[in-house]
Design brief:
Two copies of one chain form a homodimer.
Chain A: E1 6-8, H1 15-26, E2 35-37, H2 46-49, E3 54-57, H3 62-69, E4 74-76, H4 77-81, E5 119-122, H5 129-141, E6 156-158, E7 164-165, E8 173-174, H6 176-190, E9 198-199, H7 205-226, E10 238-242, H8 245-255, E11 259-264, E12 282-284, H9 287-300
Parallel strand pairs in A: 1-2, 3-4, 3-5, 5-6, 6-9, 10-11, 11-12
Antiparallel strand pairs in A: 7-8
Chain lengths: 301, 301
């Protein structure tokens, strides 16, 4: 049997919503568990920050994503920034329409202006870089209390570190990794200690291990529905289909067995032959070709 | 006689408009020539780029500022970016109200999508950093044609390089210098050649020399109105009143005679005594105190 899973970098919406979208688009039932987004590993940090004031940054509904994971005291950076008058000196030049008006309605246990921010999560691509870099520098320099004295930096987590990705424009667009470089360069210039952070996401082999574990869980629950006894066999092979050599293929290579990497010429990589630095196990022109290959391979072996 | 001049960093509006505003606020007639903004020195580059396609970046009306200086083929980055579909992958998350709708109406001699951008001017603080950094990387990497092949970087000019300045928030806010650091760090990471640029503005002694020349021109024209003969004497003393030691005081020090520096405790500097690295000739608590000192000094000496 062949199972299909999606590791989506974009993110910014809860896995439950993304699963619904994908089910509709693909005409197949996709469970939330089958959707692994860049920010999915943040779930593992719930125990550590469950009741702490944390700030969630990025497009979409970063606050709702973190709340669904179980964090109880989350503010999106939109709402957090709105607690501090004049924190963004360029605000008068920005006429935003808030995309996530419901985020504000989340019950907050504490007044964020007097409580220290305990951790910052970059959930998806930040939209308003000038404000977000300013507010993050404020939080990080002061130990979580903008406008106050210098103090120890709270932990900072990024869902991924992709510098560029292929979107609709002919040339690659800047991603979360570029935002990290901008924030880090400015922070290190205005602060004595270098910025400390943790990046999740591909090519970190953790993501592939995590995906393998999730796959095993899904398979086990499906297996238990069919027959009540027996042990699951570990995977003979897992396919990574990706369009970004340094992220997708590099990550699958680092993860090693049972990962088999297939590079498509549909995104970042458009070259002839294989990629020089991160050669894939197979290079194809499209996702369809990749799927055809897998179907042939798995039905004949 | 004592003359009063304003060297304003903020900018983003033509000197003619700023002079009108200041005249109203101060109740004294201020000529456009008496207003020296961060971007005023861009005027000196008109001969070089008069008919070339150039892009103007920043809050306010950067296109109108450059058009008033005499550049004939200017586009604000708002209008430039709108010529390229999908150039900003985060655009769908941004609901801006355009602040300068008239910029778009400027007659353009050429189609910007097919014509190379010959130079980029950062006129005032950029507002939409994620888009501006993306579009500038596109322009700079491709020699002025976003989406095309890599080519020689067109010249890039910044009106100032202030990393931080004091605004209404209790802690300093990030300025144009911080934007430059963000752009440069990302550009140097995705491109083989390092970003080349020229920064005008304080503490560059050029700004002080330029101010001195302008003062002399204003004085000469006033003098000619009073009597038709006679040569102007060079200044015995010029006062720099500033709130930023590394920019205002450092710049006045570097410019040397006839500049006399007065540091106010109203902005970036709030310490007791003088600044350690850039000591001013005089430190006072307010601009009023500085003016009192100057009036006493000039009436008694």
């Amino acid at each position: 049997m062949i199972y299909c899973f999606s590791i989506v970098i974009g993110g910014g919406v809860p896995e439950s919503e993304r699963a619904k979208e994908l089910s509709k688009q693909l005409g197949v039932d996709i469970l939330p568990l089958q959707v692994i987004q860049g920010h999915t590993p943040f779930r593992e940090l719930v125990k550590r920050y469950e009741d702490d004031l944390i700030v969630a940054v990025g497009k979409g509904a970063p606050g709702r994503v973190m709340t669904e994971y179980g964090f109880k005291n989350v503010l999106s950076i939109d709402d957090y920034a709105s607690c501090f008058p004049n924190i963004d000196p360029l605000a008068q030049y920005k006429k935003w329409t808030k995309m996530q008006p419901t985020d504000r309605e989340m019950a907050l246990r504490t007044d964020p202006c007097s409580q220290r921010v305990q951790a910052v999560f970059i959930v998806s691509d930040p939209v308003d870089w000038s404000r977000d870099i300013q507010v993050l520098c404020d939080i990080l320099r002061t130990g979580g209390l903008p406008g106050r004295e210098i103090a120890h930096q709270p932990p900072l987590f990024f869902a991924n570190d992709d510098i560029a990705y292929q979107a609709l424009f002919p040339a690659e667009r800047l991603g979360m990794g570029a935002f990290r470089i901008a924030l880090e360069s400015i922070f290190n210039r205005i602060h004595t200690n270098n910025m400390e952070y943790t990046s999740y996401g591909k090519p970190n082999p953790f993501v592939f291990k995590n995906a393998e574990n999730v796959l095993l869980q899904v398979l086990q629950s499906a297996y238990n529905n069919i027959q009540s006894s027996g042990e699951m066999q570990p995977f003979k092979r897992l396919y990574m289909i990706g369009d970004n050599p340094s992220v997708d293929i590099n990550g699958a290579k680092q993860a090693g067995h049972p990962w088999f990497s297939i590079l498509t010429r549909t995104g970042v990589f458009k070259g002839i032959g294989n990629h020089a630095d991160y050669p894939a196990d197979l290079v194809v022109n499209s996702v369809e070709e990749a799927v055809d290959y897998i179907l042939r391979k798995e039905h004949t072996s």
